[in-house]
Amino acid sequence: MTQIPTHQPPLKVQNLSMRYHHKPVLTDVSFEIPEGKTIAIVGPNGAGKSTLLKGIMGLAPTIEGLVTLFGEPLAKKRLATAYVPQREEIDWDFPINVMDVVLMGRHGQLKLWQRPSQQDRDIAEQALKDLSMWDFKDRQIS
Fold first, then answer.
1. CATH code at 57?
2. For all residues of the chain together, what is the average pLDDT?
3. d(Cα 23, Cα 122) in Å, to the nearest integer?
4. Which of 41, 83, 89, 128 could covalently link to 133 via disulfide, CB atoms 3.0 to 4.6 Å apart?
């Protein structure tokens, strides 16, 4: 994947606050992820890890704060981002492979009942290659 040179961090969260049913659940969260770094969000059940990710992605309402991706508000790059939620119950025998899962990230670009195009498949292929996962494309999820 070709990155445009930038001095902005890939992801920056500034003063993010969230609440559920008028109860504050996250208050004034700020951090940035430097380019080329892998991070982990750790904490006990109920600590707000999933809530934080949903707030960053705009999938849960925020009270205030700004999330930027390479210096631009994430809202402007909504179609360039995806969120894969954690599920406790997965049918591991469901016939779906790694490529199918990656193609699901393209569904936000499709109209109702539209199937992924060759361009969508090319984009998914490149994503797998960028992550050195191309050899796993036909492997059933497990």
1. 3.40.50.300
2. 85
3. 44
4. 128
